[in-house]
Input
Amino acid sequence: MSSSNLFLAGGHHSRGAFFGAKRALLLLLGPMLVACAGPRPAPSVQLRAFLGASDDGAYSYAEISESPGAALLARKVTVDARGKQTSDQALEPASAQAALAAAAQAGAAANRTVEAALGAVSMEGFSLERATFLAAAEGSTRWSLEPVQGAPCELILLDEEAELRISMRLPGGREELVLYRLPKVGRTRIEGVLLLPGARRALARTLSVWSDGDSVYRLEGLAELDLGAALATLLDARAVRALQTGRLAQAREDLERAVRAAPRDAVAHYNLACAWALLGEEDKAILALGKAIDLEPEALRDQALRDPDLDGIRHRVELKLMIEPRSEDLGE
Output
């Protein structure tokens, strides 16, 4: 099996650099916002407003950025269900100016203005009603995602001295995976989270406002949260512990949930292959291993060569074709 040394003291094998890359992806939006929230950022006003979602989990947002000496940025952006930007078109000048006027009028007040200012702006095929808004309470907040994720889990907003942090946890679990960090600069808030259709991703609605002399800096942001990847990582970590202690049925159940939450999680597919192999389900093990190696061939092919959890399918021709070195790999 492939285990995570982030959560586990030991394990049959370590994910090492592969898991590290995954964790960096989950935390990507945190450092990006840290850079924006320094003492003298380039934009004096940066606004992002959610414009709606489609049934498959794609979404659209408006972005407006104004800073001294720079051209006004005002656009509408769409992002597909896998997180890839698919279109970028100009936002109507009147709408952009209305949003900037509302932000200027708010000054240093700790409330978002862009949603009300852009209330009439829409994108064809996207609807606000397709997203579910989870409002944050004062201080720390916990939201149960069981109805939409298909597996019991909690999304947690923590209000700490230096930052606001959003993380995910399995009920009763000791692991907590950080999805997003927002440093406290001036007046800082996370108003809540928008759950997108399919419940694999969400958008945190953020606000940071601070003054520098006579200048007021306002950032009204949207931070994407990869819920599917986070849930898969937590389920995978719990499943690895179950495999290590012989609870094969529990491990298999968690890993099946993990690959549903994040179909492109190679490590979850790999560990599911290990669980099926240990349960004696050879065909299912071969299928899961094939998906894992298709997604991450270099790291997982080498691991499969030496993993004792796969000994039960070591005799299968399909396994040999997937993992054994070929003549072209050896330079022949």
Notes: The longest helix spans residues 227-244. Residues 27-226 form one domain.
